[in-house]
Amino acid sequence: MTFTADLGQGEEVEPARKKAEALGIKDIYIEDVREEFVRDYVFPMFRSNALYEGVYLLGTSIARPLIAKRQIEIAQETGADAVCHGATGKGNDQVRFELGYYALKPDIRVIAPWREWELNSRTSLIQYAEANGIEVPASKKSGEAPYSMDANLLHISYEGNILEDPWAAPEEDMFTRSVSPENAPDVPTSVEIEFEQGDPVAIDGVYLSPAAMLTKLNELGGANGIGRSDIVESRFIGMKSRGVYETPGGTILLQARRAMESICLDRGQMHLKDELMPKYAELLYNGFWWSPEREMLQAAIDDTQKFVSGVVRLKLYKGNVMVTGRKSKYSLYDEEVVTFEEDSVYDQKDAQGFIKLQALRLRTLAQSRYLSKD
Questions:
Q1: How far apart are the first and last CA of the chain?
Q2: How far apart are the C-alpha atoms of 323 and 155, rounded to whole Å?
């Protein structure tokens, strides 16, 4: 049997059915999991503002736990004793899938053709597919292996081909989800995003489901040249990898969420949350979505989002996402306190004692180490 998850990747879904039918497979599972994907995986991840190594929005990483979960559910429903994935023996996905399998069904058998068969390159894979009548995407240029691409509602990634050289610039015709910033409209797009407890719920006053929300943000971002990134990342298995990504909606969402949190979160909450974020991102990147430590961090992160509600206004322009306003009934921003004009809330003389107390250890250190030398 085969399983294909419709995560919003686009045209890959129905061809997968035809390919399975052509191979004589009778039990073909193709399921639309877009709403579950965004609601239960993408949005919880974004509540942490997760960025792996400071730049990667984890578009591939966050899709694997859901695929693994559904595979195990189908295996249990049908009595299958094994599951299979097509990830290579060099990448992260083999780890992500299999950690998910074992976390959800410890006794499951895993079949990984890339590791078990004589498939030591993409070229040999293509040759095997052609010899067995299996259609595979071809490169636009004759004689070249195709890009390795992964797509879902959050992003699309490109690896391989000329991108294996980290000095080689991506070709413009490779991109599928965004116009180049140079060709984006000369007039900026203004948009307002409403949040409830950390998650986006409406765009310009129109309430949308999670999947519809991300779809709309992708449209807005792609049309304005937003969301392209060129990254050399550290794979879990130990090697460096270069990938190019398009994450238009996610790029907008990250900026909007940070702006919303800036007025709704206490300083201590925000700073500790930022300290936890790299660990959370690393857990997701390395495939530990189902781990107890990720669940522990998620509980802490979700607790911070209880009052992250309000509206953020953004300007989208030629690859840039610019915050132009934010408001919330839970805002911690107090104009009477921060004003440069006269106020009755804050006595500026109080700052003198505060500064002296903060400087006490520095003054003591200076007296002990430097002034004593005289």
A1: 83
A2: 22
Q: Cα(335)–Cα(244) distance, rounded to whole angstroms?
A: 43
Q: Higher-confidence residue: 78 or 343? A: 78
Name the amino acid, one letter, at 73: E
- Contact in structure between 218 and 42 (CB atoms under 8 Å): no
DSSP-derived pairing of the beta strands 240-246 and 228-234: antiparallel
Report angle CA 34, 39, 40 to the nearest 5 degrees.
Answer: 100
The position carrying tokens 């966050």 is 62
pLDDT at 89: 85
Kindly report which listed range (227-231, 287-291, 355-359) carries the lowest average pLDDT score.
355-359
- Altogether, the residues listed in the chain come to a count of 374
**Paired tokens of 5:** 């998850």
Residue 220 has pLDDT above 90, yes or no: yes
**Nearest-5° angle of CA 210, CA 297, CA 47?**
30
pLDDT at 371: 67
Q: What is the C-alpha separation between 21 and 134, in angstroms, rounded?
A: 11
Taking the CB of residue 157, how many other CB atoms lie within 10 A of it? 20
**Does residue 30 contact residue 4 with C-beta atoms inside 8 Å?**
yes
Beta strands in the chain (DSSP E): 2-6, 28-32, 82-84, 109-111, 148-151, 156-159, 189-196, 199-203, 206-207, 228-234, 240-246, 310-317, 320-327
Domain ranges of the chain: 152-333, 345-373
Examine the pLDDT at 145 and tell me if it is beyond 60.
no
Percent of the chain with pLDDT over 70: 93
Lowest-confidence region among 19-23, 145-149, 257-261: 145-149
Under CATH, which number does the domain 152-333 receive? 3.90.1260.10
Banded pLDDT at 183 (limits 50, 70, 90): very high
User: Average pLDDT, stretch 124-151?
Assistant: 70
The single-letter code of the amino acid at 151 is A
Pairing mode, strands 199-203 and 189-196: antiparallel
Whole-structure pTM value: 0.91
What is the arrangement of strands in the sheet containing 148-151, beginning at the earlier edge strand?
148-151, 156-159, 240-246, 228-234
Q: What does the block give as tokens for 1?
A: 């049997």
Q: How many CB atoms lie within 10 A of CB 66?
A: 20
